[in-house]
Amino acid sequence: LSPGAKMGCFTFIKVMMILFNLAIFLSGGTLLGVGIWVKVDGESFLKIFGTLSSSILQVVNVAYLLIVIGAILVVIGFLGCYGAQKESKCLLMMFFSVVLIIFIAEVAAAVVALVFTGLAETLLTGLVTPLLKEKYGVDEAFTQIWNVTMTEVHCCGLNNYTDFNNSYFYDTHHSYPRQMLCPGSWAITTSCHPHPCGCLVQGCFKQILEEIRTNAAVAGGVAAGIAALEIAAMAVSMYLYCRLDEK
Q1: Pair (111, 81) in one structural domain
Q2: For the domain that residue 172 is a member of, what is the CATH number?
Q3: In this structure, are 223 and 119 located in the same domain?
Q4: Do 32 and 144 belong together in one domain?
Q5: Where are the transmembrane segments (predicted)?
Q6: Distance between CA atoms of 55 and 74, rounded to whole angstroms?
Q7: Structural domain span for residue 153
């Protein structure tokens, strides 16, 4: 290619890099804002996204998850956009490094999720069960999230209803959450089959895991798309980095 054609190609890729990362920056800012909104006013979020919010994200704190993802996207978007616009080798290399670290972490997480499902259950049990015992009935947003989850997913606790044994809620009310009980009755069944009143006493983890397996193809497609975008972003940033040496 002639020097003019090379310069035109460089300029085109630079502009695309700026626009792409500007979109990432704005998306990250949006997620950050939504995360702060969920943290401050979780009830209104649940009213708007009640059914949608009873997915796997209810096992963890949605607000903190959105805030972390939003902050990461804001940083990536800023480094890529500003680095390309200023033609800064330092910022472009930082962008490449951050995306590479995230890509490696995603691959590692996918391998762990596929190979060590039992380990994931153990870790979740160790993290979430103490929270249920301490915060359910104390933290209003946390309680509302789990109420919606248990109602929509038809489950009790993370593993089963015994997650609420010796909990703040049980010690205070001397009963399990009403989502686990028959109307007008304090009795509970230890069967994993549907209760005559429509309740289920099996844990939310197994229910959510089954839902993930049902939608595994969609989740895999989304993950592959994200990985492809990350690889493309790293390739473009490295191309710009190398071309700056020739200018």
Answers
A1: no
A2: 1.10.1450
A3: yes
A4: no
A5: 12-38, 58-79, 91-116, 216-241
A6: 25
A7: 107-176+200-232
More confident residue, 128 or 100: 100
Whether residues 57 and 113 share a domain: the answer is no
Which pLDDT band holds residue 244 (cuts at 50, 70, 90)? confident
Residues 152 and 80 in one domain: no
The per-residue pLDDT for range 90-109, each reduced to its tens digit, is 999 999 999 999 999 888 87
- What pLDDT does 192 receive? 38
Q: How far is Cα 107 from Cα 179, in angstroms, rounded to an integer?
A: 37
Look up residue 99 and give its two tokens. Answer: 């995306």
Distance, CA of 239 to CA of 33 (rounded, Å): 33
The encoded tokens of residue 241 equal: 């980095």
* Least confident window among 6-10, 134-138, 196-200, 242-246: 196-200
Is residue 190 in some structural domain?
no
Indicate whether 61 belongs to any domain. Answer: yes
- 215 and 133 fall within a common domain: yes
Q: What is the 3-state secondary structure (H, E, C) of the chain?
A: CCHHHHHHHHHHHHHHHHHHHHHHHHHHHHHHHHHHHHHHCHHHHHHHCCCHHHCHHHCCCHHHHHHHHHHHHHHHHHHHHHHHHHCCHHHHHHHHHHHHHHHHHHHHHHHHHHHCHHHHHHHHHHHHHHHHHHHCCCCHHHHHHHHHHHHHHCCCCCCEHHHHCCCHHHHHHCCCCHHHCCCCCCCCCCCCCCCCCCCCCECHHHHHHHHHHHCHHHHHHHHHHHHHHHHHHHHHHHHHHHHHCCC
Co-location of 17 and 125 in the same domain: no
Indicate the number of domains in the chain. Answer: 2
Residue 16 contacts by C-beta under 8 Å, 6 or more apart in sequence? 236
